[in-house]
Amino acid sequence: MDITAQQNLVHQTRDERRAIDFPKLSPAERDALIKKYHPDHRGHAYRSIKFGPNAGDSTVMEVATLLEGDSPIPADFNLTPEYSVDVLVVGGGGAGCAAALHAHAAGSNVLLATKLRLGDSNSVMAQGGMQIAVAPDDSPVQHFLDTLKGGHMKNDHDLLKTMVEEGPSIAQWLLELGVLFDRQADGNLHVKKGGGSSKARLLTCSDYTGLEIMRVLKDEVLNQKVPLLEFGAVIELLSDGAGTCTGAVLQDLDNKRHIVVAAKTVILATGGIGRLHIQGFPTSNHYGATGDALVLAYRMGVPLVQIDTFQYHPSGGVYPEQLVGALVTEGIRSEGGHLVNAHGERFVNELDTRDVVSSSIIRECEEGRGVRTASGRVGVWLDTPLLDVEHGPGTLDKHFPAMVRQYERYGVDIRKDPVLIYPTLHYQNGGVKIDVKGETPVGNLFVAGEASGGLHGRNRLMGNSLLDLMVFGKRTGLTAAERAKSLSQGKLTLTHVEQFREEAQRHQVSSELTSPMVLPAYTRHVS
Ligand code: MEZ
């Protein structure tokens, strides 16, 4: 059957499907499904890390190789600083901007360095919303319980408690800065339901929530005149020789030179790992998402937590080719969009947790019930026209303008036709170990946002990332600023790099590959 005939099947089966309420799986069924189909359980894609704080732990090959990579900085590198600051924040996404703004407001001498332009990040691409318990029938306790259940009970309770309790004050802060969250007719904030949540808790700005939040945060960084260095990628940390962080080396991507920053405190907010294309998956992530904080913190001796689990968002684009891997927001399923296989059948409750939904899609495709494109890709349908049928004409235009436009650019009208989707690498569930202030076990080194680990357990719920960024951005910014007041600048050394090299040699790990990756290879040769 060609693609058009397959699409017709989606239209023909719509009424029949609407009459069926697809049940959620029992915990035992969910576990069995995930073990069989989720990419986290493909043993052949994993190996043990050879040395360092997580020696012997298993992670995907791509991450293990980067963690064991050599520093790009030679031992005799000149460490004369070009900048000397109280707080160096690395990363210009949500967590980095929040950290820099709070540290600056606390009176610190801050430098905000970012690999690409201010705002280039996964935060700006976040579509479906931000979970905060603000509705009268909701509470931080309920938010805590939903998140714990979604994370398979493996979340760090202290981090999670901190996040859900501070949510309402973050909403207040963003509103005061000017974020235009969607509102009900009576003027109250409008909340939507996300997968795995028992309550409607998502604050949204249509389907460009991250873009709207970042519009305001970027303006604020510029208005407050927070010192900013764009195209400055972090490639090594510096230590005092006794295990405390004292700065970083940046690579100026514009002028191909190095910049040494002496910093009393350092906050890494460099985001996730999507551009490592783990297990060959396409990704919803921006080009700079290459796991830099994981590599640098690890080299300095900080353990990583839950670094064997990744989130494959159920709905990444499959067709057209230009949108392969691009996010198709969970919001569409939250508003009733069905997932439909090549036989015109639903096969999962679309609002189950992401790991369950993704595993079900992979099962359908592996067992021959997927839809194949002319280029050989496979996926299942997301019945987008159903939203206008269910909620009235104009629903997609009103609630999902970004999605309508994203597909319209390539001649696909999602109001008329369903879209083909397949799981896309979206998020690292684990990351660098932090405490409730965002500090790592290495003194004066903080990590905020996706780069950190523990909060989300083994599966993050929709909308918890944007809140994570704001809560731990704020906490790291304030703590680092306060800490810096009582510190004098420590020595700048590469002692930890020397020690790491010795350990690599002891484990006979070749030093041919340097890390962090900074940008994926396919972005480097554009002439
Ligand atoms: O938190 C997310 O990952 C999110 C809101 C994504 C989406 O589907 O829109």
Compact overview of the structure:
This protein is α/β, with parallel strands linked by helices and 527 residues long.
Give the name of the CATH architecture of the largest domain.
3-Layer(bba) Sandwich
**Bound chemical compounds:** (2E)-2-methylbut-2-enedioic acid
Beta-strand share of residues: 15-25%
Low-confidence stretches: none
Which features does this protein show?
single chain; 527 residues; Flavocytochrome C3, Chain A, domain 1; FAD/NAD(P)-binding domain; five-stranded antiparallel beta sheet; 20 strands; binds (2E)-2-methylbut-2-enedioic acid
Give an overview of the whole structure.
The protein is about 30% helix and about 20% strand. By secondary structure, the chain is an alpha/beta fold. It has two domains: about 5-35 and about 310-425, Alpha-Beta Complex (Flavocytochrome C3, Chain A, domain 1), CATH 3.90.700; about 85-310 and about 430-495, FAD/NAD(P)-binding domain (3-Layer(bba) Sandwich), CATH 3.50.50. It is globular and about 70 Å long. The mean pLDDT is about 95. Bound molecules: (2E)-2-methylbut-2-enedioic acid. (2E)-2-methylbut-2-enedioic acid binds near residues 127, 128, 327 and 330.
